[in-house]
Each structure stands twice: as C-alpha cells, then as structure tokens.
Amino acid sequence: MHNIHSIEDLRNRARRRLPAMVFDFIEGGALDELTLRRNREALDAHLLTQRVLVDTSQRHATTSILGTRLDLPLVVSPMGLLTVCHPDADVAIARAAATAGSVFVHSPWSGCSLEEVTDAAPGRVWAQIAFWNDAAETRRHIDRAQVLGIDTLVVAGDVAVSSKRDRDLRHGTGMPPRPPLRDVVNTALHPGWVLRWLLGRSMTWGNYRIDGRAIRMREMEAWMERNENQTATWDDIARLRSSWTGNIVVKGVMTPEDSRLAIEHGADGVFVSNHGGRQFDSQQATIEALPGVVDAVDGRAAVIVDGGVRRGSDIAKALSLGADAAAAGRPFALGLAAAGQAGVDRAFEVLHDELLTVMGFLGVTRVDEMPCTLVDSTGLRLEAAVAAIEASQ
Ligand SMILES: Cc1cc2nc3c(=O)[nH]c(=O)nc-3n(C[C@H](O)[C@H](O)[C@H](O)COP(=O)(O)O)c2cc1C
Description:
Blueprint: H1 7-17, H2 20-27, H3 34-45, E1 47-48, E2 63-65, E3 68-70, E4 74-76, H4 89-99, E5 104-106, H5 114-120, E6 125-129, H6 135-147, E7 152-156, H7 166-171, H8 181-188, H9 191-199, E8 205-210, E9 213-215, H10 217-227, H11 234-243, E10 247-253, H12 256-264, E11 269-272, H13 286-297, E12 302-306, H14 312-320, E13 325-328, H15 330-362, E14 374-375, H16 383-392
Parallel strand pairs: 4-13, 5-6, 6-7, 7-10, 10-11, 11-12, 12-13
Antiparallel strand pairs: 1-14, 2-3, 8-9
Helix pairs in contact: 1-15, 4-5, 4-15, 12-13, 14-15
Bound molecules: flavin mononucleotide (FMN).
The site of flavin mononucleotide has 23 residues, from α15.
Cofactor: FMN
Domain FMN hydroxy acid dehydrogenase: 1-380
Protein name: L-lactate dehydrogenase (Cytochrome)/(S)-mandelate dehydrogenase
C-alpha cells in the first residue's frame, strides 16, 4: 500500500483489477450521470478558508454521533453486492471500519449477513433496512438487529423505484448477469478476479434466506419483484418508531420538507444522500441540499451526508455546512477491490490524515470547532456556512 496516496490511487488500482462490468457497476450512476458528476463538482465549488498563527499542534478528529464514538467523522455508506469486488466483501469493510473507529452501515442487499458483519466488528455496525412487501421479512430483519445489539437502523428511503443505469445495461449487469461477448473476454483477461470469485464466497445475498440458504444470483430478480415495495410511507417510520427503541436514521433525505417529516415521524437522524447519483438522475448534489436540511433539522436530529467524498477536505466542507458526520461509499468499495481489507484500511488512513492536515490549515483542533468559513470561487462567503457558524456559537 506504500504507493497509494489517495482515493484516486485506490480507484486506479481497482480499475486494473476488476473486469470492466464490475468496475462500472461500482462507479456508475443513473442515466446521464448528471447527479453523479454534480456531487463532485459542487464539492469542488465550495472552498475553505485558511487561518494562520493558530496553535493546532493537538488536533484530533474524534467525535460522536447517535451515541457512537467515532475516531473520525466518517461512516461507511451501505452498499449491496460488494462480493463482486472481493470475496471478503462486507466483513473486510466492517473490520476496517472498526479498526479506524468508524461505523459500517450494512446493506440489506449485502452478500454477507448481518450476523457475520456484527461478529467481525462488534459495536461498529448499523443495520440498513428496507420496508419490503412482505412485512414479516422486514420484521425478522429488525428482530435480528435487536438480538445482535445493534442500536441504529438506517431506513432506505430512496429505493422504491428501480433506477436505470446505462453502463449496467450495456454490460448486461443484472441478476443474473447476461454479459455480451466483449465482457466475457474482458472478464477472462482478469484471472485474479475470476480465481478469487471461483475460490471465494459465492455471489449470494447473505442477508435473506430461501429454504434456509442464502439467495442465489439467479433467484435475486424474482425475490426483488416479490418484495419491492412502492407503497411505503412516513407512517411506516412512525410504526417503526413505536416498536424500535434504538435510533432511526432515514437515508435519502434531500429536502427541508422531508427532513421535517422525518423528525415528526420519530427519526433521530437524517442521511442526506442521492445514492451517489445511482438512483434519480438530474437532482441536486448532496452538498447543495445539505444547508436546507441542516436548517430544517435545527439541531433536533443528527445529520449525515454522503456523495462524492474523496478527500479529507470534503469531510471538512460537509461539517462546515453543519453535518455531524460525512459518509462515503465508493472509496471503500474501490479500496476493497484494490486490495481487500488492506485497501479499505488504507482508504480510512488517507482520509483521516487528509482531514487532520486540512484542520491544521483551518486553524481548528477539534471537529466541533468546524463550521469554518466556506467561500465560492469568487471569494464570496457562502451564507449557509455563515449561518451554520452563527448557529454553533
Ligand atoms: C456498489 C454500490 C452499492 C450501493 N448499494 C446501496 C444500498 O444497498 N443501499 C443504499 O441505501 N445505498 C446504496 N448505495 C449508495 C451508497 O449508500 C451511498 O449513498 C453512495 O455510494 C455515496 O456516494 P459515494 O459513492 O460517492 O460516496 C450503493 C452505492 C454503491 C457504489
């Protein structure tokens, strides 16, 4: 890992190691990928301001969110089917998250079961749930989380409708995959990946069962068709609130209105996310949506934001706009693909080091000393950041 200095370095290594169809599955977004790109462009358009002659020798990035202590204000966003990157999949990421003092959010579409990741990273796992058509399936998932001592459920809010991802359609990526000849050839040219896949964990959904065993790839489509639920509403959050004593975080919140609804229906946290541009294209970047959410939440719930975080400075920008923590998906999936757990460990190290460096330039020693002033490219102070500073004083 000595020549990996950035998330981009991990991405380049992952690109070499993965068949094109797998790399594109991780990297790609919906339709024209406008939102995918915008997440990055908007982060780049927010600039931080340097302070000088401040003693920052004792910097640390420790914080806490929803009762969980974090060594850095960054959690792992939920990601399904990570088995395609590396057979150690979620278990490797959960272990790396625990080592880094972070939290791993386990996806319902994961290749590994909730039990496996909790075993690998006790106290460091939050469980994502979806409201399935089969309410008993949802209930079983919640009960398992409770038995495992998980204290935070992250509700998938933005998955009622399946998205269209052109890259995946071109590669024939699906459940099961139907790749064209060029992808079969391209995959054969990645023997390391093929071997890991043949010898390692099979590509099942480890979290749900059919006849007592994990769901196989060819069964996934039919399972999803039976369980995909477009009728879930805020009432389901209220019902969940009445039966779950731990934290509830709603993921996919992009507006002040939905933030208020989340709190009214009992959520303890909102997760500002556009699914990394993978679901609904043509919507705002998350960093653009964040100030409105922070304003509407007004300190009544925790705010987490993901989408395009690739540098420690991106975490600082999220916190400067009032988020309690940032989250990231692809950096960890790409780290996993690049080198298994060592790649994920490296992703955490890089982001942690970069955050501490940027804090030195910002003149802060603790993450709760952010918000710091943000400016746009003309040097104008961004009002949302100014409001966040005033609110924190
Ligand atoms: C391969 C992959 C699988 C994903 N699976 C899920 C999922 O199961 N549930 C979910 O809420 N979001 C899922 N997401 C979205 C992430 O949770 C997160 O919102 C997004 O990756 C953040 O953007 P970033 O990748 O730029 O950090 C997935 C993202 C990727 C890249």
